[in-house]
Specification:
The protein is built from 2 helices and 9 strands; from the N terminus they run βββββαβββαβ.
Length: about 180
């Protein structure tokens, strides 16, 4: 087996760029067509989440503002809720994010596809769904499962555009947020 791998400067593996394999993909003959090897659900941490639906911290109060004694948001004097009617609830939720008790995730489906390039060699590509971001970590497993299903459906539509028609493989769950 001849395998060459590319590594990023941080040492992580980068799929799809220069990994070639003479692996016969578990004895399946590809007849020149891409072969779906794996589908997985990922829930990466959303580091750029937008919490403006809860409100924002400011030095100037607006309607329903809560004066914060701990310098909420790091340095501001007021929390201005998005909906003044729910100021306390929104402030409490915002502080759960600020204190790291809650976080935001993305939900996406990924497929590993082996594309024949000749002489029993395959290029390995990773194809993903569009992903949905800004999902709270406490959203519940039923909601997360619905988001995952939606992402798998999106991924399958993408895979069909690449000529992949066989989808009878199990889906790997790479997330603590899915059952």
């Amino acid at each position: 087996m001849d395998i060459r791998t590319c590594k990023k400067l941080d040492g992580s593996f980068r799929k799809g760029q220069c990994r070639l394999s003479t692996d016969k993909v578990k004895g399946i003959r590809s007849n020149g067509k891409p072969i779906l090897k794996e589908i997985s659900i990922k829930t990466p941490y959303d580091e750029m989440s937008d919490l403006s639906h809860l409100g924002e911290f400011s030095d100037s109060p607006s309607e329903g503002a809560i004066q914060v004694s701990d310098g909420g948001g790091g340095k501001y004097r007021y929390f201005n809720p998005a909906n003044p009617e729910y100021a306390q609830e929104e402030y409490k939720r915002m502080m759960e994010f600020e204190n790291g008790q809650l976080g935001m995730l993305g939900v996406m489906a990924k497929a590993e596809v082996h594309i024949p390039i000749g002489n029993k060699n395959f290029k390995i590509e990773e194809i993903t769904s569009g992903g949905i971001w800004g999902v709270a970590t406490d959203s519940g497993s039923e909601f997360m499962a619905d988001m995952a299903k939606e992402q798998v459906e999106d991924l399958i539509a993408n895979l069909k555009s690449f000529g992949i028609k066989k989808f009878d493989i199990p889906i790997k769950l790479d997330s603590q947020y899915l059952d």
